[in-house]
Amino acid sequence: MTMLVKFMKEEKKYYVYIATNCPRKTVLYTGVTCRLIKRSGQHEEKMFPNSFTAKYNVNRIVYYEIFGDVHMAIDREKQIKAGSRKRKIELINNLNPEWSDLVAVMF
Length: 107
Known about the structure:
Elements: H1 2-8, E1 14-20, E2 28-33, H2 36-45, H3 52-55, E3 60-67, H4 70-82, H5 85-95
Antiparallel strand pairs: 1-2, 1-3
């Protein structure tokens, strides 16, 4: 029975994302989470008022990638963070040229 339950469980997903401050789009924040919708809400509601994202009004997720392994997700987050602003903008524009709120369009 335990094997069946494990088999039926959905594989955990990890999201590496880039968020920005809309409408200005002057700040790009890269993060990783296993709950993208919840994290988006935390950014929008400024759940952590002393955080970087609250200070700079980061409130829209405009890019994300999905991973099944947390270590791969963290490695990718570090890779994106180490990249230039130009490279981050290219990633966003290739996936989401309108810079739409991707969490809002998930539903």
